[in-house]
């Protein structure tokens, strides 16, 4: 894609906007459609788009594969860790009241924020890792044959 | 069979037509990538069917006003199917990519992604093994 | 009335897209049609009031899934072979299955009926209780993360497991490990 000037310029403009939108979806998910699953996919799309246009080495310089692999597990750990915190403060697993017993509603909001964050991290990691895995294989069809 | 019954059920039947198109692609076509596309179509049709069961006529999307002043007259559509299907979509893409990864591996091992060719190769290998080791295993099968 | 008209227009397009995907043998076109199918189904989900689901479907189905399928095509082949069997038996199977499922829908309540079994269960309670128990405007988020948090934890685990599976199959991590093992074996042999 080295010769597609318009694609390269537009991608540079879009990648940041897509990431910003992903974070909006992540943190505004309590008030409007959205949440960790959608935000994770959208954030991954920003990296996939960058990788499609500038090539795999360029995007892996920004987000190395080992970081992605750690993200996959980190999200699940954040999610389960939220549950373990409430377990250790004497409540049921994933009962967010434990996070702020004086104001159960605040505890719920905080718990939802952490849990959605965990989901977002895992989904981003998995989607980007899958893209890296597919793009890292030597292609069989050259660009001209499409 | 009155008119309201027909209109109330027609969309279920259209979902089923889509589901069956997906099923047809899965069982009638030999190309593995196309089978996965068929599986995706089947899956999406099931999702829509599931969501349509939760729909209430005259209802609105299950999101309260931001100031949480809820009008008791408002009818909200059932949010439970939405939750189940939302997670199912993301799990669906993860499993689809697992299937696609298997397809890539199959192509690297057999140099084809057509079911018929793979079966031919497998039969040939089995015959050769049978010819070579058949006697040791208690006669040719 | 206008909603019914929009619904049926979308339904027609969806069915046509699905049938076209079944008939076309150029795989690039099939993958693009599957992306179009996802976008159309997202539109239909909006008319069914499932905005969260429509959002997910648009992002996942039309975005990531199309890219992954194109990636697979680049690693495999572009054209499907002409099938060697006649489609008679699959057609019979599909027609019988479809007829059986349609027979099953005959007893279902009408589309959009407010007192169907699906509406009278736990869902009404969620809508009633979540404003003062959770205090989050989006009921879907409240159920997803709080009432059904276990469920979502499991789903996250499934996504993680599928990702690990893909990495084991095609990322090349396994071969590197094996090479290291062989080197270890060589060293062991040299030492022994």
Q: Could you outline the blueprint of secondary structure elements for this entry?
A:
The complex is a heterotrimer of chains A (146), B (141) and C (192).
Chain A: H1 5-27, H2 36-54, H3 56-62, H4 65-88, H5 104-135
Helix pairs in contact in A: 1-2, 2-3, 2-5, 4-5
Chain B: H1 3-28, H2 32-54, H3 80-110, H4 115-133
Helix pairs in contact in B: 1-2, 2-3
Chain C: H1 2-23, H2 27-47, H3 51-75, H4 88-105, H5 117-120, H6 122-133, H7 139-147, H8 149-170, H9 173-191
Helix pairs in contact in C: 1-2, 2-3, 6-7, 7-8
Describe the model.
- The complex is a heterotrimer of chains A (146), B (141) and C (192).
- Chain A has one domain.
- Chain A is elongated and about 60 Å long.
- Chain A is mostly helical.
- The two termini of chain A are 14 Å apart.
- Chain A is built from five helices and no strands.
- In chain A, 72% of the residues lie in helices and 0% in strands.
- The longest helix of chain A has 32 residues, at 104-135.
- The model of chain B has no long low-confidence stretch (mean pLDDT 88).
- Chain B has one domain (3-60, 70-110): Helix Hairpins, CATH 1.10.287.
- Chain B is built from four helices and no strands.
- In chain B, helix 2 (32-54) runs antiparallel to helix 3 (80-110).
- The N and C termini of chain B lie far apart (59 Å).
- In chain B, 70% of the residues lie in helices and 0% in strands.
- Chain C has helices spanning 2-23, 27-47, 51-75, 88-105, 117-120, 122-133, 139-147, 149-170, 173-191.
- With 192 residues, chain C is mainly alpha-helical.
- Chain C contains nine helices and no strands.
- Chain C folds into two domains: 1-83; 139-192, no CATH class.
- In chain C, helix 1 (2-23) packs antiparallel against helix 2 and helix 6 (122-133) packs across helix 7 (139-147).
- The longest helix of chain C is centred in the N-terminal third of the chain and has 25 residues, at 51-75.
- Classes of the chains: A mainly alpha (146), B mainly alpha (141), C mainly alpha (192).
- At the A-B interface, helix 2 and helix 5 of A face helix 3 of B.
């Amino acid at each position: 894609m080295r010769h597609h000037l318009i694609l390269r310029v537009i991608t540079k403009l879009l990648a940041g906007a897509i990431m910003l939108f992903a974070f909006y979806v992540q943190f505004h998910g309590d008030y409007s459609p959205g949440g960790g699953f959608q935000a994770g996919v959208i954030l991954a799309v920003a990296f996939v788009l960058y990788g499609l246009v500038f090539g795999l080495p360029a995007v892996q310089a920004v987000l190395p594969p080992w970081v992605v692999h750690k993200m996959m597990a980190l999200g699940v750990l954040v999610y389960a860790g939220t549950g373990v915190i409430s377990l250790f403060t004497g409540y049921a697993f994933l009962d967010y009241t434990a996070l702020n017993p004086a104001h159960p509603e605040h505890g719920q909001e905080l718990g939802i924020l952490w849990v959605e964050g965990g989901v977002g991290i895992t989904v981003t990691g998995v989607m980007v890792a899958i893209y890296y895995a597919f793009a890292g294989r030597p292609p069989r069809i050259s660009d001209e044959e499409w | 069979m009155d008119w309201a019954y027909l209109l109330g059920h027609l969309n279920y039947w259209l979902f089923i037509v889509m589901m069956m198109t997906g099923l047809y692609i899965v069982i009638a076509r030999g190309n593995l990538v196309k089978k996965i596309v068929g599986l995706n179509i089947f899956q999406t049709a099931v999702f829509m069917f599931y969501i349509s069961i939760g729909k209430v006529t005259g209802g609105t999307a299950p999101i309260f006003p931001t100031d949480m002043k809820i009008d008791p007259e408002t009818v909200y559509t059932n949010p439970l199917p939405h939750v189940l299907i939302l997670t199912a979509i993301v799990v669906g893409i993860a499993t689809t990519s697992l299937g696609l990864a298997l397809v890539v591996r199959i192509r690297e091992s057999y140099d084809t992604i057509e079911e018929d060719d793979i079966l031919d190769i497998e039969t040939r290998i089995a015959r050769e093994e049978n010819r070579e080791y058949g006697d040791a295993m208690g006669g040719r099968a | 009335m206008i909603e019914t008209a929009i619904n049926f227009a979308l339904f027609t397009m969806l069915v046509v897209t699905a049938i076209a995907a079944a008939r076309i043998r150029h795989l690039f076109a099939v993958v693009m049609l599957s992306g179009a199918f996802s976008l159309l189904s997202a539109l239909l989900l909006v008319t069914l009031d499932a905005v969260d689901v429509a959002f997910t479907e648009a992002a996942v189905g039309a975005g990531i899934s199309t890219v992954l399928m194109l990636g697979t095509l680049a690693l495999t082949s572009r054209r499907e072979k002409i099938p060697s069997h006649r489609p008679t038996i699959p057609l019979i199977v599909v027609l019988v299955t479809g007829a059986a499922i349609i027979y099953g829908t005959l007893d279902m309540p009408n589309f959009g009926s407010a007192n169907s079994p699906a509406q009278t269960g736990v869902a009404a309670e969620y809508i009633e209780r979540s404003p003062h128990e959770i205090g989050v405007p989006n009921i879907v988020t409240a159920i997803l993360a709080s009432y059904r948090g276990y469920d979502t934890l499991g789903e996250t685990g499934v996504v993680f497991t599928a990702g690990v599976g893909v990495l084991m199959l095609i990322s090349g991590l396994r071969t590197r490990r094996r090479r290291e093992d062989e080197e270890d074996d060589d060293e062991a042999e040299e030492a022994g």
